[in-house]
Amino acid sequence: MSVYQIQIENKSAENRMMSVTLLQALLSVLIEGSKGALRLRTEGRSMMRGAPPQWIKAATQFSIAFQKNQLDVESLPLLEVAPELFEKSDLFPELNPEWTSLDYFQESLTSAILTLNHSQHNKMGNTRMVDSIYDSPLLYAFQRFRYVFNQGAGLVHFLNGKGLQITPESITAFKELEANLPPPAKVKVAGKLESIRMSDRTFRLITAQNQQLIKGIVKPLIQKAAQGLSSKDVLVSGIAYFTSNGKILRIEADHVLMAGEDELASYGKLPSFPSELEPKKPESKPLVKEEP
């Protein structure tokens, strides 16, 4: 197990007490953000209607201790949480069984902050790209830190890892990052359907050109037909969701059909977000009950 130390600084230096509501708000961000970080890596989306899988619920059951202004959060690695899924199975190749859900939460939070820093550096001529490990709903979950600050906190400092510091100004930055995500768009991609998971309808596609991996989700009505095409060349058409740097995060597939040589040649390249793609409405906000 791992213990994560989070230091909370009050706005008022004279106030030595910590609001229970503040701790409740912080724990809510950690729990919902950790759930979202796991779902993003396994399904390509951090939130959706309905309850998350049971193993994700178990992975986000934390133990805590609080002393002075420091919160210690204990989290179990995925291998201990669900050994039946991670011990001898390649069901979730995207995940490291030795990591905890909080590791993935902090990785996504770090990714968002690095993207913001890159955006600032880019204005000064630095063009290095940053891989973004978040989507719109997860950025919205990060914005829930505002409830922590509304209860008197001035700074939330994650002492483990890269020592992330979240301030009230971070909320505005997360909003800006969410607003600047490319809108969803219609795409067609051809390649080999490497696998499709029955539990969450997630598929993995290897593009015909350059052998690049794309993750997606099939609709329930076409799941059975898509499973019959596993390990075959297919043409996937649907709505693509993009990262902040224009890479495909996932495709929500409307159709998965057998692909011929013409389709593999025409649609075998991994698409990114160009201006000529037809934009769709931005991803809706998750249905999360907001706490005061």
Tell me what you see in this structure.
By secondary structure, the protein is of the alpha+beta class. The chain folds into 2 domains: 2-179, no CATH class; 185-267, Copper binding periplasmic protein CusF (OB fold (Dihydrolipoamide Acetyltransferase, E2P)). The chain has 10 helices and 10 strands. The protein has helices at 20-43, 54-59, 78-81, 83-86, 101-122, 136-142, 145-150, 168-179, 223-227, 261-267; strands spanning 2-10, 63-67, 70-75, 153-158, 165-166, 185-196, 202-207, 213-218, 233-242, 248-258. The longest helix is centred in the first third of the chain and has 24 residues, at 20-43. It is elongated and about 70 Å long. It starts with a strand and ends in a 25-residue tail after the last helix.
Question: Characteristics of this structure?
Answer:
elongated, OB fold (Dihydrolipoamide Acetyltransferase, E2P), 292 residues, 5-stranded mixed barrel, 10 helices, 33% helix
Write the layout of secondary structure elements.
Blueprint: E1 2-10, H1 20-43, H2 54-59, E2 63-67, E3 70-75, H3 78-81, H4 83-86, H5 101-122, H6 136-142, H7 145-150, E4 153-158, E5 165-166, H8 168-179, E6 185-196, E7 202-207, E8 213-218, H9 223-227, E9 233-242, E10 248-258, H10 261-267
Parallel strand pairs: 8-10
Antiparallel strand pairs: 1-3, 1-4, 2-3, 4-5, 6-7, 6-9, 7-8, 9-10
